[in-house]
Amino acid sequence: MSTKFKTVITTAGAAKLAAATMPGGKKINLNVMAVGDGGGKLPDPEAGQTQLVNEVWRHTLNKISQDNRYSNYIVAELVIPPEVGGFWMRELGLYDDEGTLIAVANMAESYKPELAEGSGRAQTCRMVIIVSSVESVELSIDSTMVMATQDYVDDRLAEHEKSRRHPDATLKEKGFTQLSNATDSESETLAATPKAVKTAYDLANAKYTAQDATTTRKGIVQLSNATDSTSETLAATPKAVKVAYDLAKAKYTAQDATTARKGIIQLSNATDSTSETLAATSKAVKAAMDNANGRLAKNSNGGDIPDKKQFARTIGAVTSTNITFNNASGWYKIATV
């Protein structure tokens, strides 16, 4: 049984494909597909064709890609929207961006209704061409002209899921991020797992529980603004310290003492000073007392002299001389008053 439906590379298309494989050759950009009714009968595609037998509609390709199973197969897809129709489809033509018919095919005839006829559907037409080198064909389309069929959406989702074209999450933008069980990491690009959070939580729960501070140990303490407290378990705030400081600063400023007013004064050990701006120390007072205690009391009339005879001799109150009374000579003490 002979093949009824087939795709043929046109003579012009073969020449362009061959030129594209040469060093420095220009890639072919396939971008348009046309649909024809074959003039009322199923046509037989020929390499010499430059156009369809009877074109009824054309549009930008919805998709062009390399076949998943056969690397040298290129699949071109056209989607006819529901609102377009009212014609039979028996032939397809694939054009490049220069308007050259690259490949032509016939297809099982099918009527494409339009909505006004009471029935409408999106019709997908695919053409597969075999090339010696896929590198000779530009596999890209104008995405603004694409109609999102279910297959197209599924393919794009599958492609996206398998790709790594996902933005990473940052501190400012949402995105994908890698999970981490680390509890000692400083990373800002990883996300902690519940396991990591639980580990950190359990570690924190097992830590030392703070105790109150005292005058003999460190600990936590409550702050206080009081300036008249005698507490040994509260800590003064900077506000309390400032209040006390300002109060002290506003108090009476000490001045020098004089014989007429109270004040601050310098101490002195001197016992022979005539200063009226110095104060005698206990040492100076003792020295003066000892000196006074060593002197004779005026109102004792000599009664407090320890050795009165020696004192009398010292001051010349008693002398000895050799005199003769009644022819009796000898030494006699004479008191001089």
UniProtKB/TrEMBL annotation:
Q: Which domain of life is it from?
A: Bacteria
Question: So where does this one cross the membrane?
Answer: none
Its subcellular locations are: Virion
List GO BP terms, alphabetically. symbiont entry into host cell; virion attachment to host cell
Task: Outline the extent of the Phage tail fibre protein N-terminal domain.
Answer: 1-151
InterPro entries in the record: Phage_lambda_Stf-r2, Phage_Tail_Fiber_Structural, Phage_tail_fibre_N
Under what name is this protein listed? Phage tail protein
Q: Mind listing the UniProt keywords for this protein, alphabetically? A: Host-virus interaction
Source species of the chain: Salmonella typhimurium
